[in-house]
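call fold target=RUFY4 protein
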Amino acid sequence: LPQRLASLAATAQEETWQSRQQLQAQRQEMARLQEELSRARQDGERWASALQRAQREALEREATRGAEQARQQELIRDMKQRLLELLREKDALWQKTEGIDTPMPSPVPRDPGLCARCHKDFRLLSRRYNCSRLCQGKVCHTCSVDMGKHGRCCLICYQQRHPQAT
């Protein structure tokens, strides 16, 4: 019996030692897991803080963008209003100038050797052209406009026929 008790005691000591070893290993594992948990909590807090900061910055950007958009809309509205004012002013000026007569072509000079507009002498190098429009005067190259196949005409006749060209 004493051998058996000694054997049981030895087995119990061995089991106790193994249990202690397992307990120590489990404690180490638990400490490691607690450390990981602590790091995960810190990471979570950092991520939450970063998320809050990003949300705050996004809200600030959105507010700035909204204010800029409001300024741009106001500028567009002001520009449209100014455009309407300018169009009204243009129409008023157009109506005022509607009754003004355009200058009539000056009479043809009696000397056929002079330009009807600038009174330059016609020579070998300065060609004379007959105005193909209203005045039928003789004009130099400088005082005339090429009308294509219709010939040339003096600047005053051209301006009367084409007022948008002035």
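return ok
Residues 114-165 form one domain. DSSP finds two helices and four strands in the chain.
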